[in-house]
Each structure stands twice: as C-alpha cells, then as structure tokens.
Amino acid sequence: MPRLPFLLLMALSFPVSAQPPAPMELTVSEGFRNPLGYHDALPTFSWKLADERPGARQTAYHITATDGADTVLWDSGKVESDQSVYLPWGGTALKSRNRVEWSVRYWDQDGVESPPSAFAHFEMGLLDNADWQAKWIHPPLLDDAEATLDPVPCFRREFSLEHDVAEARVYVTARGIFELTINGHRVGDDHFAPGWTNYDKKIETLTYDVTDLLQSGPNVIGARVARGWYASGMMNGAWGQVPQLLLQLEVRSPAGAVTTVASDEKWSVSLAGPITYATIYGGEDYDARQELAGWNLIGGDGRSFEPVSVSPIGDTPLLRPKRFRTVRRTEFLPSVSVREVEPGRAIFDLGQNMVGVPEISLPGLADQQITVSVAEMLNPDGSLYRDNYRSARSLAYYLPAEDGGISYAPAFTFFGFRYVEVSGYDPSFPPELSWVRGHVWHTDFPATGTFTSSHETLNQLNQNIRWGLRGNFLEIPTDCPQRNERLGWTGDAQVFAPVALFHYDTHAFWASWLESMRIDQHEDGSVPHVIPAGPRFADWVNSPGWGDAMFIIPWQVYVATGDRRLLAENYDAMKLRFDWYHSRADNHLQTMDRGFGDWLQPVMYHGEDRLVGEDTRWGETTRDFLATCYYGYGARIMANAAAVLERNDEARYFDRVHQDVRAAVTVAYFDAEGKLTLPVETQTGYVLPVAFDLIDSLEMQTKVTNAFVDRLARDGNRLNTGFLGTSMLTTALHVMGRPDLANHLVFSREYPGWMFSIDQGATTIWERWNSYTHADGFGDASMNSFNHYAYGAVGQYLYERFAGIRPDPASPGYRHVVINPVFTDHPLTEASAQLETRYGLVSNTWERDGDDIVMTTRIPPNASGTIVLPFGTEPIVEQGTCEFQTLKSTGTSAAVPAGIYRLRFQVP
Asked: How far apart are CA 548 and CA 543, in angstroms?
C-alpha cells in the first residue's frame, strides 16, 4: 500500500468535524478543586481543554451551575469567548453554606461543540461573624490577664443526636492551633490550623465534612488547642496568653432538621493532659504518664475536666474561611545513617535539611525521659551544631509511662533540621535506622514545575531551591524555619515569588498573604518588614525592597497566573505604597535613612569605612539609591497594572513618573561614561537600574554595561551582591546582552556563589554563601541559617534561560509562552523544564546530538507560543508546523499555536 503524506494522515487522525473531548480539571478562583468551606462569594471558573489536536483552541463556552438539586443558580448561555480561565460568576453573590455544582462545555476552533464536563462542586463556609452561634471557649486561667499557659488544654463536649445523620459539617477555628476529634477519630489531616494572621483583625476558619464520624445517640467532640503563633511569644510578639477554641457543628437529619452543637458553657476543659508544653520556638514536651484515658471517647474519664470560660464573638476580628491550603505532611524522610554516641544516645542523619518534626519509634524505660534534639549541621567532633538556633529551645521530651516500645512525633511545633539526636532510650538496645524518620511539613500546594539538566550540581541547586521553598512556606513565607525568628519577611518573599510560582501552585498562598499585608499596611502606605507584623513590629516599616513587596508580588502573581482580579484586589494598596514614595520624592529622587540596604553583601570594598547601616550586614549600596530604584520600579509596575485594569489615565501618569525617575537616576548616579558615582561602586549599583529599566538611553546602557563588566572583572568575575542585588543579577546581565557572564556566575564554584555552597555540603539554600566552609568552619552563629530561600531567586534563570520557558506579561499566565533557551557559554548538553499551567502542560527540552541541537516544545491547548532561536539559525522542523523568520530585534523566531514541535538545528 502506498504511504500517505504526513499532513493527510494528520487530517485522517483528527477530522475537521470531530467532536472535541469534554473540558477537564475544573477549578474555581485561585485553582481550587471541589473545595469545602470555600471563601469566595463571587468565584471565578477555569477549565482545561483535553484536545490534543494541533492548534486546539476555544471559541465559545457555556457554564451551568446548580445547587446540586433542581435549582439553577446560573446559566451563562453560549458566550463567544476564547477565555477558559477566571470566568466571573454571573449569579447572585453566594451565601454561607451554599453548595454549587457546575459544568462547562465549549466550542472549538471549528465551531464544534464539546460534550459537557463532569460536574465539579464547591460548598461555602461561614462567610460572616453573624453566621456563628458559637462562643470562644478557654481555660479559666484566661481570666488572669498576666497568665501564661504551658500545658496544652484538652476540650471535650458530650452530646446526643436524636436522629440519623444525613450530613454534618463542623466549622472550627482557634486562637492558637487546634487538633480535632469526633468519637476518637481525627478530623482532617491538617497541621497548624487555622494558620497565622493578624489575630486582632482576621482569623481564618476551617470546614470539615464529618458525616461519617457521627452516629445517632451519644457522641463526643474532643479538641486540643496549643499556643501556636497566637500565644507562643514570637519575635514579633504575642496576640494573647492562652489558646481558645471556636467550634460549630451542624448536623442535618434525613428529614432536613438541623441540630447545632456549638462551643459554649456546656464544654469542659482539662490542663492535666500529656502535652505539658508546646510552642513554636520551644518545641514540645509529652508525659505519657498523664495521658487522659478515653478523654475524647464516649463515656471517657472526665474527672480532671472543669467548666470552660467563654467570651462572645463580636464583630472583630473578622471570621472568614481559609483561602488557601493548610499545612500537611507531604513526605516521610527515612534515616540514612545512625551513629551510636554511647549506650542510650545516638545521632541519626536524614540526609536532607528539612522542616517538620522527627518521629521516634524505639524502646523506652518507664519514667526515664527521652530527649529529642535536632540540628541542621554537625560540629567537627560529630556533635549537633545548634548555636545558630539562638534562643530557640527546639527540643522535644518524651516521658514513657512503662517499659517497652514507644512511638511519638510532636504535634504542635516544628523544627528545621537534618540531624536528630535521641537520648534516654533503653541502652540495652543498639540503635536502628528505623527508629527515626522525618515528617516533612509545609503548606500543601500542588507541585507544578520541574527543571533538570545534564549538570549534576546544577540539578542539586534546583533541588536545594525546592527544599528551601518547602521548608519556609509553612503557612506564610518565612525567612528561616529553625531559630527564634521564622517571620514573614517581605524582602525575602518578593525576590523569590516568581520561583515559588513556578515550582508550586502558590497562587492562593500569595493571595492570602497579600491580604494579610493589606491588613497590616498603614494609612500612609507604609508596609511592615514582616507580615503578619505582630504587636511588636507593626511600626517597623519601609525598608527599600522590603515594603515594596506590596506592589511587586501582585504583579508577579499576575504575570505567572493571569489572574486579573488579584491585581484589582491589590491595586489600591499597591498605589498607596507607591504614593508613600511619591510624596517623599525630591526632583524624582529619594532620601532614605532607614532600611536594611543590600542585605548581606558578601565582601566589603572599604572595610567598615562606608557602611550604610549598623555594620557590614547592611552592605555599601546607599539607601537613598535603593529607595530611588524601587520608586522607579514601582512606577513601571503601576503603569503596567493600571493599563491591565484599563485605568488609562493613571497608566499614563505612572509612565511619566517612570520616565522622570529614569532620567534622574541616569544623571544623579552615573557619570558620562556610565560609571557609578555612589560613594562605593557596588555591583548592585549597576544591577538594579538596568533590571528596573532606569537607564534612559541605549547609548548610556551600553556604557553602564561596560562599566559593570569592568567592575565584575575587578571583582575576579565573582558576584558581590546582597539579597536585593543577587535576585536581579542574572536578569540585568541578560538585559545587558551578557548571558555569558550570567552563566559564569551560576556555574562558578568560587566564593561567593551557589555552587560554592553546594560544594560545602548544602542541601538547601543558605543565608550566607559561607554559612559553613570546609576551610573555616561555621559563620557568625547570630545569623547563620542553613535554610534561607532568598538566594534561590536564581531558580528563575534555570527554567527561563537554560530550559527557555518564560511567561509573556502581555498575555499572562502562560497564555502566550516564550521559548528562548540559552545554548552556549555554559557546560550543559541538555536542559528540560515543564510547567503545569491553568491551560495545561508547557514543556521544553533540548539536547545536543553531535553538532546538532534537538529541541521539543509543547504548547497546551488554547494557548500559543513564540519559539526564539539564535540569530541566523536555520531549523529543520521534524514535528509540527511552524515558519521561522529572522529579525534583528528578536533573532530567528516562529509564532506557534497549541501543539508539539520538534526542531533540529545548529547554533551559528
């Protein structure tokens, strides 16, 4: 039989009139799938097209939403639109407890209608304080305003249901962190719920389906509530002294009658339970001899319980459903080695610096305390290095009630650690690897992006970045997970947000944290350095590069997700932050006597002669200059955001400000030859104006580039930037047209540098490049975190430049994908990245095949891309259909619709 032409085969495989498959992976708002206890009364709707045909796209859609029964809540009708993400709800605003089931169908590029999708659903939580019948309950000790509470209180409530259970929901929150049971069964698998907010202004609530845990007749609710962030005495202060519980159980009978059991005076509490101490910094103490037998079971021993004290809800703080995923255990890490120090004491190595808790399963002796101590590193003598924990106790104690095997993992604290020392177990047993494993905890967002290459150390760097993210995205984006800090530093977060948005679906995580930022923002636009600010740090504000997270992160989230509504939600706060700068401007420049400078610049050019802060940690780049740069950057972001939101007059205004600041920066900080004129010629002084588009002509940018290249050469072609400059270093070099230097810095194994730290043993990103060195040992213990993600901002360079996947701000959320890898001036022979977007999977893989490069690109349905190759490339298209053209401005490029493309070419 004669062979058919390829295009004819494709036509036979995908007839023009073929019905496209039904939409899939339906989500609401920031990527939620079938959420329970949902927060958004006016949600948006997204779906993916399952059509694998080349060029697959949508031309219309039809959404139907019901209450799960016979009532139609909204029918969009057929809407001519290619939009398949963030479609706004067209019905009336939803109310507490509403259930919505929805389905969508669409019409493809040929006008052919798809089948309807399977139904997705969501159910609202309690949206207003008035929906609560419950009262706050707490131990009577709260009546003493000066009291503190070490034991974790146990609350219980017995009740009887006079009917069968058709459906049951429990709505619950705490001032503190809770663990809930019904009839002895754990409710949910969350940790640290409800989370960390400004408890004076807003507390988040959780909703659980507990239908299967209840029965007709007697039942009992049990709850343990620890101090958590609310009352642990964090560095930024405590909101209260004693944990409190708020709970409302609603049980529906088959006939539709509702029985409500709420936290009130009918509850009882005991402080005599086994957890005698639990705080964030301190750890946890567990006395098994004090276990309350059956306390959370029907008919359990309630002799140690006493009546609770109660207080009303009131109008504040706001009680609102949690708007992102909770902290959960996402992985177990087994021990990879164990060393017996002496009988009854051993050190276990988990092989990876992680965040969570160790679980011990080992032989114990009655009344002999077992101590669990943790560390990120070992001293030269093999003992735990704990100096960098500062005043954080970070210990767990377990007191067995009897001889024999015990199993224990702390419930109400977390540690940053790799090594676990256990002492006090039965010394007649030699230690075994199975005795200790790590519970990895972090906010349970789905993984979305991956990167890999032919270079083992580069792959390790990528893994270190991911582990640093996982370890520090526990409820909020913390700076570090181990010492007496663990705060939501805004500067660290803004430099790292794009990387977080690639590796994990952190869309809702950022939306929630930005809400906390808006809550803590001052009326004049000032933004605290940490969010939540807490009672102590509310007025610690406005360091350049830190408070500016208020306008930087919303834009970054928009570019990565395409969520226009999130941009609108934050726009007023963004503008307020910008206005704070604008009100201080003098001839378009800023004067600033506060802030952290370019924090942790590695090497001082002038010793301590020209520091901008208290000591060398502040670096040598002046705060006036940094403030001016972020003012100009803010103007550019605001111009872009205003244009997206169709605030055209404001967009033009912000653009004029940006142009004015560009001109002022160029004149004020550079001489005619492009050399920096600051008191100290720092690398960051060149990096930020270029990265923020603050050099006012191409001619001057060329001169600035040459001056920066000279500065680098005098620095031995080593980076010398702090937190702010490092995040923009490789970006600036690309703008300057020097990717060769950017590549050199990434692959450098000299101090300071990413691979230098890996060569010293790093399995996460460190706070300092030399937090530890084989030659000199440990750095300054007062600020020496071995899990500090800020320098992981370089991860953006890995997937955008080496693998070549970039979003397009003009068509955000990867609706239009730019594929533009760097093939030369580095040791890679292959690189690959993939990203699960709201439209589907984007991927790009290239590898060397002799003198050729073979590259395979995937663009998801209803999206498009531009493939950019080096100038003068003549690719052979082995799969897909695309036409390349060569332009001086962009190189050799092709615009492509959805599909898979395989190219073979040689780089000129």
From this structure: 8
Q: Calculate mean pLDDT across residues 742-749.
A: 98
Contacts of residue 572, defined as CB under 8 A and 6 or more positions apart, other chains included, come to none
- What is the distance between the terminal CA atoms of the chain, rounded to a whole angstrom? 42
| Segment 105-156, tens digit of pLDDT | 999 999 999 999 999 999 999 999 999 999 999 999 755 555 567 999 999 9
According to DSSP, residue 800 is labeled I
Among candidate residues 250, 620, 681, 767, the one labeled active-site is 767
| Tens digits of residue pLDDT in 813-836 | 999 999 999 999 999 999 999 999
- Which residues fall within 8 angstroms of residue 193, CB to CB, at 6 or more apart? 173, 174, 177, 178, 206, 322, 326, 327
**Dihedrals phi, psi of 372, to nearest 5 degrees:** -115, 115
Contacts of residue 349, Cβ cutoff 8 Å, sequence gap at least 6: 335, 336, 337, 338, 418, 419
Of 710, 697, 699, the C-alpha closest to 738 is 710
Clarify whether 485 is annotated catalytic: yes
- In this structure, are residues 194 and 173 in contact, taking their beta carbons and an 8 Å threshold? yes
Name every residue whose Cβ is closer than 8 Å to that of residue 76 and which is 6 or more positions away in sequence: 61, 62, 63, 64, 87, 90
Distance CA 158, CA 140 (A): 20
Token couple for 365: 């002796």
Kindly state the helix (H) or strand (E) to which residue 192 belongs, with its residue range. Answer: none
| Per-residue pLDDT, 61 | 98
* Reported pTM: 0.96
- Of the candidates 123, 485, 681, 836, the residue annotated as catalytic is 485
Task: Give residues with Cβ within 8 angstroms of 631, minimum separation 6.
Answer: 578, 581, 582, 585, 590, 661
Q: Is the pLDDT of residue 607 over 80?
A: no
CA nearest 439: which of 352, 526, 559? 352
The whole-number average pLDDT for the span 794-812 is 98
Interatomic CA distance for residues 557 and 809, integer angstroms:
11
> From CA 71, how far away is CA 636, in angstroms rounded?
47
The answer to whether the beta carbons of residues 487 and 479 sit under 8 Å apart is yes
Residue 613 has a pLDDT of 86
Percent of the chain with pLDDT over 70: 97
Measured CA distances, 565 to 4, 64, 504, 568, 569 (Å): 49, 22, 20, 5, 6
- How many CA within 13 A on the CB side of residue 893? 15
Give the confidence band of 1 by pLDDT, cuts at 50, 70, 90: very low
**What amino acid is encoded at 171 in this protein?**
Y
User: pLDDT tens digits, residue range 287-334?
Assistant: 999 999 999 999 888 889 999 999 999 998 999 999 999 999 999 999
Q: What does the alpha-carbon distance between residue 594 and residue 551 come to, in Å, rounded to a whole number?
A: 19
